[in-house]
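SAMPLE LOG
Freezer: B-3
Tube label: C17
Construct: single chain, 136 aa
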Amino acid sequence: MRAQGGERQEQDIPVISAGQPEFGRPIRDARHSGGRVHRAAGADRPPTGRPQQGGRTVEMARVYIGAGREAGLRPGDLVGAIANEAKVNSNIIGAIEIEQRFSIVDVPASMASGIIDVLGRARIKGRRVPVRLFRE
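STRUCTURE (predicted):
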């Protein structure tokens, strides 16, 4: 093209990465992480909000639950307890982190106090556990 006197315009090709996790969503890979939840790259803590349809974001609060892997707790147990006891839709529950002796669950900030009250009176895996707002 240049030999004939023409100049070809170069264009940048946009980078598209396949299989990249959604922003702020936890990545769970029990084979390599020992059951721990890892955050996607760029997802800083504490969470500022969760994208919803219509472009709105919901502020999330972190709830501390005084039971973890040692008590045999699984993410489904926490989702079930919150959804059934607090009568909320399971879709609004955010990231769940289960450690050896405690767990942390992201819930909408506007519902956090009600969820804490209800879970404080409920039994999780047959035991009463302390439930409070998580402060780092």
